[in-house]
Target: Iron complex transport system ATP-binding protein
Amino acid sequence: MKLDVKDIKYSIESKLIVNGVSLGIEEGSFVGLVGPNGCGKSTLLKNIYKVYKPDSGAVFIDGEELAKMNSRETAKRMSVMQQENNVEFDMTVYDMVMIGRFAHQHMFKTDKIAEREIVISAIKEVGLEGYEDRSFLSLSGGEKQRTLVARALVQKASLIILDEPTNHLDIGYQYQIMNILKKQNLTVFSSIHDLNIASCYCDRVVFMKSGQIVGAGTPQEMFVPEKIKHLFGVDTKITQNPVTKKPNIIFIPSV
Model:
């Protein structure tokens, strides 16, 4: 499923946060959005998955304008994992994952046995077998993230949007979640904080700064010292990961 973003602009209190962003995500690709804090990454993603309404511009999935789709039609095409997931009321892991099935459920036609099998399968996929009846609020940060990945997967959408899915997780959970996402063969567009994770998993990387796209290409094209210096203001040395053959970014201390 192909995603096209056409000249999106979005302001908050008259301040332009996203400034004329256009980009295309090809079907089946895993694309990372990288940039300093406050550059507009999360705001851009919220314009894509309809939390915000753009001041101008449009988002298209396979040529259809997203703004013209209702919530059920949108959910069948695109699943979302947000950075903030503040749950104010508790529910079980099973019920949290089942929320992802709402787009496919109908009052009189839903096969409850089949729905349960889909949810249980996703819970197993993310390594939470046996947690079905656990309280979501009682889970660790990594377990909550894996539950939310399962919820996104059961939507069976071909496009998934993620806002820093590995943020605040220890290294083991970070790679576990990225491995799960990578092997789904979906179209993925995700903001990513860790440059080496972006390099390892992404087919393409988009650089964002001050509300604008300032570059895009393969990890080999984008993760070079000059471009990283321009984006983040830090010095780096680039080596090659001996396993993935992707760039390995080493940050050079200034002291």
Summary: DSSP finds nine helices and twelve strands in the chain. The mean pLDDT is 92. The chain has one domain: 3-251. The first helix runs from residue 41 to 48.
